[in-house]
């Protein structure tokens, strides 16, 4: 059952996504913890485990926001490695850069303002591409997937961590109620922006389910595409090889 579900219009999606992340940037990390009860941290750890970072690797973290995936990647690499955080929203990038300074991460990470659909990177230039809670915000998913393939070196890997379809019926009901009642209220209380969190719920609802996304990633030319459900399918990690 869906409460007050409204379609996101693709023609107005990009300016709306911009406005949403402009509005939440300064509270983004706090809200992430509050809304997910900290679970997003476990999901990000799962992603890093799958990537198995090593010294010398180059990561491109698209829709990288405030840098979570890149910081974790560099820490796990256990030696010099390179991360590019690319996000369309400058405010998110600026918050990320401040966080990097606070953490003492002064080298190994570069911050780029850019669109997932037209990445400002050379073809075949990175070993790993990640997009965490980003693909559902992109207007043309297939254009973003084609760009992912273009920038990856042959033998490189693609990873997408994103909200997905809950596979356990009992959990589905609880999750729906939480999404349409608690979440927007939390958004109102902490970020003063109910609409932004309403958008979050709607964008999750409209995003392709696990199997459909496998099909889209395969259609973009990736090999051995698979997924792993996290917390009963609330989120999933999709991966594929750039052949
Ligand atoms: N990856 C981070 C994380 O996991 O905490 C941030 C995720 S945040 C929910 C989504 C991010 O996607 C926002 O920072 C937003 O600006 C960015 N974004 C939206 N559309 C984008 C696009 N077309 N290209 C690049 N980034 C985009």
TrEMBL record:
Q: Which InterPro entries match?
A: SAM-dependent_MTases_sf, UbiE/COQ5_MeTrFase, UbiE/COQ5_MeTrFase_CS
The GO terms describing molecular function are: methyltransferase activity
Task: Write out the residues that bind S-adenosyl-L-methionine.
Answer: 66, 87, 115-116
Family assignment? Answer: Belongs to the class I-like SAM-binding methyltransferase superfamily. MenG/UbiE family.
Which NCBIfam families did the record assign?
MenG_MenH_UbiE, PRK00216.1-3
Q: Which HAMAP family match?
A: MenG_UbiE_methyltr
Q: What is this protein called?
A: Ubiquinone/menaquinone biosynthesis C-methyltransferase UbiE
Q: Which gene encodes it?
A: ubiE
């Amino acid at each position: 059952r869906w409460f007050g579900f409204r379609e996101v219009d693709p023609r107005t999606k990009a300016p709306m996504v911009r406005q949403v992340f402009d509005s939440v940037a300064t509270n983004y990390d706090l809200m992430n913890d509050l809304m997910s009860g900290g679970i997003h941290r476990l999901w990000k750890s799962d992603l890093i485990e799958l990537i198995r970072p090593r010294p010398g690797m180059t990561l491109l973290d698209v829709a990288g926001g405030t840098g979570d995936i890149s910081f974790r990647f560099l820490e796990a690499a256990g030696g010099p490695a390179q991360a590019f955080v690319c996000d369309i929203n400058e405010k998110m990038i600026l918050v990320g850069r401040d966080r990097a300074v606070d953490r003492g991460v002064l080298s190994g990470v570069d911050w780029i303002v850019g669109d997932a659909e037209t990445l400002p990177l050379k073809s075949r230039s990175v070993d790993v591409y990640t997009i965490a809670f980003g693909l559902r915000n992109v207007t043309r998913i297939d254009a973003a997937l084609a760009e992912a393939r273009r920038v990856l070196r042959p033998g490189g890997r693609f990873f997408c961590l994103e909200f997905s379809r809950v596979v356990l019926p009992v959990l589905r009901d609880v999750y729906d109620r939480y999404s349409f009642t608690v979440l927007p209220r939390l958004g109102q209380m902490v970020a003063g922006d109910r609409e932004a969190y309403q958008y979050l719920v709607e964008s999750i609802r409209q995003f392709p389910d696990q199997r459909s996304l496998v099909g889209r990633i395969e259609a973009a030319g990736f090999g051995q595409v698979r997924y792993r459900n996290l917390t009963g399918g609330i989120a999933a990690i999709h991966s594929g090889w750039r052949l």
